[in-house]
Amino acid sequence: MNIVVCIKQVPDSDKVTIDRETNRLNRAGVPSIINPFDENALEMALQLKDKHGGKVTVVSMGPPQAEEALRTALSHGADEAILISDRKFGGADTWATSYTISLAIKKLEEVDLILFGKQAIDGDTAQVGPGVAHFLDIPMLTYAKGVEVTGDTFKVDKVTEDGYEIWDIDKPAALTVVKEANELRMPSLKKKMAAKRAEIPCWGYDELNPIDENIGLAGSPTKVSKVFAPPVKLNKEILSGEPSEMITELIHKLKEQHVL
Amino acid sequence: MSTTKELWVYAEQRDGKLAGVVQELLSEGQILAEKAGFTLAAVLPSANGAELCQELYNFGAKKVYTIDDPKLANYQNDYYSRAVAQLINEMKPEIVLYGATTIGRSLAPTVAVMVNAGLTADCTELDFDVEAGNLLQTRPAFGGNIMATIICPDNRPQMSTVRSNVFKKTKLSDNEAGEQIEYPVDLSDVPERMRRLESVHEADTNSIDLNAAQFIVSGGRGVGKPENFKVIYDLAAELGAAVGASRATVDAGWISHHHQVGQTGKTVCPVIYVACGISGAIQHLAGMQSSDMIIAINKDPDAPIFDIADFGLIGDLHEIVPEFKKQIAAFKA
C-alpha cells in the first residue's frame, strides 16, 4: 500500500515568547518543528505500513529549509521524501497550496491513501487537506482518529463534536488526522543516520508544470490586508486576599456586568 | 441570476436540527447585509428543508434555498459540496458564511476550491468595506498574538468560517416572513465514494461540547493531581459549564484529551472562561484568548494568564474554586 503524508514545517509555539512591551512574538531563534498534527498523520501511515506493508512517502511544500522537517520524518520511519519548493510558489494561500501539492501527488505512482494533520498550528486553517483531495478528485474525511483496511475501502473512525462516526471510504482516499489518533514513535538511531544522508528530490515549477494563474500569489484569492496586535484588556481587575471575599466581589462584578 | 446581491449563511443541520451557530451567523449576517445593501439568505441542503425554514426566517433570512434529496439527509462531503457549489455557481452570492464546525470545516474548504473562492478560517470579526465591496475578515494568527484582516478582492463569493459564540443570536420574532426557494440538484452522477456506517453520540461525565459552551471551567497543572479535578467538575456543574484542561494535565494523564484547550487541542470562545491553576503558556492562550471574559485563578501573581484575564484571583485554587461553587449555588438559590 502506498501512503502519502503531507507535512508542514512550523515554528515551535512552545518556544515562542511574547514581548510584553510591543505585544509581538519573539520569533528569533525559535526552532522549527513538524506541525504536531502531521506527526499523528505520519504515525497513522507507519502503523498501516507495519500491518500491510508498502511505502510511506512524506511530502512538504515550503522554503528550502523545510527539507529539515522531511529528514525528521524519515528518521521516524518514512521511506521517501519529496520537497515542493520554488520561489514561484511563494505567497500561496491555501487554494494555491492545495493546487500545487496536488500536482506533486499526481506524479507519484498508485497512491492508496493521503494523510494530513487536521490543521497546522501556525495558520490553523485546516483547508489544505480538503483542497488537495478535491484537486485529485478523491473522497475525503476530516478529523480521522483511526483507520482500517477493508479490501478496496478504508473503514474510518472520525471524531465529531459529541462523539464519533464510522465511515467506509473508497480507495484512494484522503484523511485529515486528529491528535488522539496516536503518538509518533521515536526515531531509531539507524534511521536517523540514514535520514541525514537521504537524497530528497526538490520539485519546483519545471517539475510540476503548473498553470501560472493557479500558483503563488496569483493563485491565491485571499490577501492579508492588515496585521495588528490584539486589543489589550482595559478594565482588568486583580483581586487577592480571603477566598470568600474575593469570590463575593467577583460575583458582584459579574452581576453588574450582567453575565450572571 | 438574482437581481440584488446576496449574503448567504450555510444552514448546517444534523438529524434535521439546525446547528446553534447558524442563528449566530444569521444575526451577524443581517448587520453585514444591511451595511452592504445585500439580501440575507440561507442555503439548506437536507432531506426535508421546509421544516427548518421558519427558524431561519426568524433569525433574519429573507430567503431560504432548500436543496432536498434523500442523499442529503446526513452530511456527506461529496454530495453536500456538489449541491452547495452548484447553487453558488448559479446564483453567484457575494458572501457565504459557514460555522467552523467539523462539518463546516470539511464543506467550506471543498466548496472554496470547487468554485474558485477565497476562504478565511475561524474569523472572530467581520465587517464590510462598502467602497471596495470587500468583506473584512479578521482572525487571530500565530497562536492569537497577532490579528490579521484578510480580504478577497478579485474572487466571488468571499467565504469565511466562524466559530460558535463569536456572534450573538438575535431572534426577530417567532413568525417572520420569508421565501422558500426549492432548488433541485441532480446528484445521480456523483459517484458514491463514501458511506456513513454508524454515528455515535458519546455521553461523557461532562458532555457539554467545549466548542459550543457558554461557560468553561478549565484546570491546569495547579490542580495538582487527577482526583483534584473534582473541584473543577463541581464548579462546572454548578455553572452549567464545560470542563477544559491544559495540555500539561492531558499529557500527564489526569484528564482525557477531549478536554484539552489550546493550540493542539480545541479553540474555544465562551462567554466566561475560568482558568484554574493554568499558568498561561502561549499554546494554551492560543485556544482561549478570544473568550468574552477570562477569570484566572492562580497562586503565582506573575503567571502570564493574568496578562489576558479580565478578573485575576491570586490564591490557592483548592480554596477559591470550592468557594466559587458555594457562592454560585447560593446566588442561584
Task: State mean pLDDT of chain B (0 to 100 scale).
Answer: 92
What share of residues are in beta strands of chain B?
25-35%
Biggest sheet strand line-up of chain A: 11-10-9-12-8-1-6-7-13
Oligomeric grouping of the chains: heterodimer
The helix-and-strand class of chain B reads alpha/beta
User: In which range does the helix fraction of chain A lie?
Assistant: 25-40%
- Poorly predicted regions of chain B are none
Overview of the structural elements:
The complex is a heterodimer of chains A (about 260) and B (about 325). In chain A, a hairpin with a 2-residue loop joins strand 10 (about 155-160) and strand 11. Chain A is an alpha/beta fold and about 260 residues long. The termini of chain A are far apart. Chain A has helices spanning about 35-50, 65-75, 95-105, 130-135, 190-195, 205-210, 245-255; strands spanning about 1-5, 10, 15-20, 25, 30-35, 55-60, 80-85, 115, 140-150, 155-160, 165-170, 175, 200-205, 225-230, 235-240. Chain A contains seven helices and 15 strands. In chain A, the strands form three sheets. A nine-stranded mixed beta sheet of chain A has the order 11-10-9-12-8-1-6-7-13, with helices on both faces. A two-stranded antiparallel ribbon of chain A has the order 2-5. A two-stranded antiparallel ribbon of chain A has the order 3-4. Chain B has about 325 residues and is of the alpha/beta class. Chain B has two domains: about 5-180, Rossmann fold, CATH 3.40.50.620; about 210-330, TPP-binding domain (Rossmann fold, 3-Layer(aba) Sandwich). In chain B, the strands form four sheets. Chain B has a seven-stranded parallel beta sheet, sandwiched between helices. In chain B, strands 15-14-16-17-18 form a five-stranded parallel beta sheet. The radius of gyration of chain B is 21 Å and the shape is elongated. At the A-B interface, helix 3, helix 4, strand 9, strand 10 and strand 11 of A face helix 3, helix 4, strand 7, strand 9 and strand 10 of B.
